[in-house]
Design a protein that fits this description.
By secondary structure, the chain is α+β, with helices and mostly antiparallel strands. It is built from four helices and ten strands, in the order H-E-H-E-E-E-E-E-H-E-E-E-E-H. Strands 1, 2, 3, 4, 5, 6, 7, 8, 9 and 10 form a ten-stranded mixed beta sheet that branches. The N terminus is likely disordered. This is Lipoprotein.
Length: 207
């Protein structure tokens, strides 16, 4: 259960499961990008989440250079949450750490949410809080921002965005929680998944 996983992150980062079922094929192959290979190399089980679909390689789409790849994860306990892990470089090699590049990603994400609200995709978006996180297992730092979002159908949701830079690639986790629609719960679950992704990537040479 995700709620059971809401413990200090020093316990959350060690959750990659090497004996889970093998991942599926990369969407859009052949000509798979480095970002898509990195996403495909992630374990099927991360923290209390299981991979729920194939990798999407945005690099192969028109205008997709630098946008990387994404892979969805869903909680194993049946909670009404959905998460997506993004790996990308925006056409450059950002320096590792929690620096200006990460701050720029949050500014862009906030602009995207505002644009989505103005386009009618969301009824309302409001910032709840932000937090800095340090993964004890990897000694890596990252940042998360949590939001209250009312969906187009009127459903309240908690949403979280976590961003890190690791080995010259952005690692971003977006998570939406429908029940409970609590941005704090969404934030802790997203941080747990981000820490597990970073630890898994530290164990592989891909991307």
């Amino acid at each position: 259960m995700v709620r059971a996983a809401l413990v200090p992150l020093l316990l959350l980062a060690g959750c990659a499961s090497p004996d889970a079922s093998a991942p599926g094929p990369v969407a859009g192959a052949p000509g798979v990008s480095a970002a898509a290979r990195a996403a495909e190399a992630l374990p099927p089980m991360l923290a209390s989440f299981r991979r729920s679909g194939p990798v999407t390689d945005f690099e192969q789409r028109p205008g997709g250079a630098g946008l990387g790849a994404a892979v969805p994860y869903a909680p194993t306990g049946g909670e009404r949450m959905a998460a997506t892990v993004f790996i990308y470089d925006r056409g450059r090699r950002p320096p590792d750490g929690d620096g200006p590049e990460v701050a720029a990603e949050f500014r862009l994400a906030a602009a995207e949410l505002d644009a989505a609200m103005r386009a009618g995709i969301y009824r309302s978006v409001s910032f709840a809080n932000g937090m800095g996180v340090r993964s004890a297992a990897t000694a890596r730092s990252f940042r998360c921002a949590n939001f209250r979002i009312t969906q187009q159908d009127g459903a309240p949701t908690g949403s979280s965005l976590c961003v890190a830079v690791q080995r010259g690639m952005f690692v971003k986790v977006r998570l939406t929680a429908w029940q409970p629609p609590d941005p704090g719960i969404a934030g802790i679950a997203a941080a747990a998944l981000t820490a597990a992704v970073l630890q898994a990537r530290d164990r592989t040479t891909e991307g």
